[in-house]
Amino acid sequence: MQVPVALQSLLIQIAAALPLALVAALRPFETAPPLWLLALVQGSVAALLSRAWRQPPWWQPLHFGFLPLAWLAHGAGAPSWVYLAAFVALLLVYWTAFRTRVPLYLSDRKAWQAIEVLLPQERPFRFIDLGSGLGGAALYLAARCPNGAFAGVEVAPAPWLVSRVRAWLGGGRVSFLRRDYAGLDLGDFDVVFAFLSPAAMPRLWQQAQAQMRPGSLFVSLSFGVPGQRPHDIVPLADGARHTLYTWRM
Predict the structure, then answer these.
(1) Which end of the chain is more exposed for a tag (fewer CB within 10 A), N or C?
(2) What pLDDT score was predicted for residue 47?
(3) How far apart are CA 21 and CA 27, in angstroms?
(4) What digits encode the pLDDT tens for the residues 181-204?
């Protein structure tokens, strides 16, 4: 049985904190290690446990910084509402990341330029960005491809709202939907772009195979599909660490 990543993280934080709490409790107060040192050690142990449990790499800095940042906030005398505000902000940004295991990844201009080359140049087409974040990819491409109809889908409220505002300020050529892409019919689009996570790719590939029309293009940034050889691999320029993987359906 696979343990949900949220429960994994809770267990990791507890496991990393218990030995240090025991040390602090057994030693006299005058000789106990300072709290800042205990917080740093706990964060380091938690990050190592996260790596050993093979959690996604982005969890390791979160585990490392959780207790030290909480200690700093407490030492600075931050009012109680600050903690609630920070929690709400993180909830609005990451929303279902615990369930989907897809954090907020933002693509960059090098990726958008490489995608632009792949788009149809002489005929109308429909493009969608799955997990569109702040909307950068769709907005960039819409400004350069007047023959395309562009959309993005994002489930987290804060990034979706930012993308909607950006689209409105830019003239509204791109539509951004706040919903789970699993409920979309990918057959409505000629080009489907995703920058998600390794955990999401197998199920997304099944959806793409079942729904996308023959001749349409499926593009993934950084993450391939296990067991599926792409039709083309596009390394990005100037030593960028990302790669585009493309499949002609």
Answers:
(1) N
(2) 86
(3) 10
(4) 889 999 999 999 998 878 788 999
